[in-house]
Amino acid sequence: MLVNSEQITEALIETVQMVSFSLLFSAVLGLPLGVLLVVTRKGHLLENLLVFNVLSGIINIFRSIPFIILMVAIIPITRFLVGTSIGTTATIVPLVFYAGPYIARLIENSLLEVDPGVIEAAEAMGATPGQIIVRFLIPEALGSLVLAFTIATIGLVGASAMAGAIGGGGLGDLAITYGYQRFDTVTMLVTVGILIVMVQGLQSFGNILARKIRRR
What we know:
Elements: H1 5-39, H2 49-64, H3 67-73, H4 75-82, H5 88-112, H6 116-124, H7 129-140, H8 142-162, H9 170-180, H10 185-215
Helix pairs in contact: 1-2, 1-5, 1-8, 1-9, 2-5, 4-5, 5-8, 6-7, 8-10, 9-10
Pfam families: BPD_transp_1
Keywords: Cell membrane, Membrane, Transmembrane, Transmembrane helix, Transport
Subcellular location: Cell membrane
């Protein structure tokens, strides 16, 4: 049985939902982690090597696990949180575990690009660490942060497609179920084409937005 346009549209909507919600929850997790990785490192605002080393180690552990293995490894957690381990909603859980630490590292790298002189000037004006983070550090790195989230979003698109291997729904599930298992070459090509367009569109949008922010 060949796939029709309604099935492709439904799969596309599922992919967009997975990527959107997982990006939101991953950002909520990754942003504070990324900031902590920066401000607790040696010589920074809130130097605390114990916190930095423990947090960095935990993030490295999660980043070392391939997504397909991570999905299987945290099935009990996924079932506890959403009541099932398959489908679009269930896939969001491992996507967050996968992307949260990744975003934290991207944010860390973006914030470390900020000129130390900006922080020194803020300290000289009597700003508190919290004020420096919110009013100086993050705004100065905003253009780089936009590119970081663009990269993270594209990574989530790829991971969401990979989730189709174990019934995660979306375009990946459609490609594997019909394109691979039923030898439907047209469906495979269409899903790959849609994913390419999504990635190209996201990257272009992120580049344009970052460029505009940096010109301000």
